[in-house]
Amino acid sequence: MGGDNAPLEIIKGCLMALDEFKIEKIILVGDENRINSCAKENGLELKNMTVHHCTDTIEMCDDATSVLKSKPDSSMAVGFRLLNDGEGDAFVSAGNTGAITVGATLITKRIKGVKRPAIASIMPSANKPFLLMDCGANAECRAEFLYQFGLLGSIYMQNVMHCENPTVALANNGSEETKGTPVVQEAYQLMKDAPYNFIGNIEGRQIPFGDADVVVADGFTGNLILKTYEGVAKVLMNGIKEAFYKNAVSKLSYLGVRSGINEMKTQFDYKEYGGAVMLGVKKPVIKAHGSADARTFKNAIKQAVWFLETDLINKIETELNPQV
Length: 324
Prior knowledge:
Order of helices and strands: HEHEHEHEEHEHEEHHEEHH
Radius of gyration: 20 Å
Number of strands: 10
């Protein structure tokens, strides 16, 4: 029930995912009457889907702790409990980011050894996709959290994106190790001796060139990078479109470069990855974009499928607790 386009685009995205991926069943958690009415009005058959009715919805303006306290029968709170009870293998939502973070951390709980779970987003670049984390779960971080984000991100890129020996960089306002806040400087010193491939600081202007496979930041900085990145990409694509539609000559010119522009549009389209993963919790939790349409939500479900197919959680547990 969360997100700007629920429940219609969520239902459509689920149907697309069922057609494209190996999924046995999807449980739609929410207002049963609204979901069934929406499906009927739009001629959609809820094949291989069941509806688990609940009476409430967490809105984007609600406090993050409402998933625990004021709205225990919300679709998000009920969804997390179903996940914990083994009714589902993964949880996907386009709802309130703060509530998802609280639910994932306090209902689903952390993997042993994880200091703070973080939201990790696959992002496009000029060369290849990279992972940005944290994208909003932890506005303030200690140096040891940033150090561990690098490890979690590296494990994800190796196993899910099949990136051998991924490079890890720390987002900063300069490349020198003396730059940044005291926390970032301390994190740099920890990451220098990390078991992953740390390559130092990365400035904002270098991130879109794909100079690192994993970019580590606190949640406040990471979310700013994410939203700015998406906004600039949209402005550029709109500007290119306007330039080619100015007159008859420019429209003819467009025909010669259309395929290249379409490729670039696809390359920098956040909808290709659908959402962000919550790394560090005991079961796959995926945060889809709040404005998700059907294709975006389908791709968020794809992230959950990747998570399960690669057995990522067990690999994180083994890395953090090798004696187990």
